[in-house]
Amino acid sequence: MMAMMPTGIFQIMIHLFGFEDFMCQIAGNTEEFARFASNLTDLCIRCIHRIADAGADGIILIEDMGLQDRMMISPTMWHDIYAPLYTRMFAAAHQRGLDVISHTCGHIVSILDDYIACGLDVIQMDQQDNMGLETLHQFAGKVCFFCPLDIQTTIDFDRKAIFDRAQKMVDCLATPAGGFMAK
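Below the sequence we write its predicted structure tokens.
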């Protein structure tokens, strides 16, 4: 049984601040922003403990961090600000025996290694074509991919095209070490 987190530390900040103010805060008010982000992470960890107490097997985060062709913030900024927070959060989940699944849309390939290193178990992507399956192949075996056919490029009613694309996803993303789950 997986439990949806009521909040994630990236996406909720955009909702709380609004996108423009989020960008201003992260770029110009770094000390106050870092304190807020740390407090929000503490809140997420409290949620994780309650989820574990309720008997869940894992958590799911909704963290849309990418645009179509790049991250919303620089990969360096993501690494400096968010990687330590996700590491704390994911460690708390793992200490309670929970798996960690994160949904994210957009082009996140520049931080995917770091995100996995934070303790991510499963990445749920609805878009892969903006990064390319061949590019994502480098992460096969490091994380389990949980994906449908790309929702922007493979909405096709041609049965053969759908099955061919599904096979390509299995070929590029599935390994015994990391796995692939069709969504």
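The chain has a mean pLDDT of 90.
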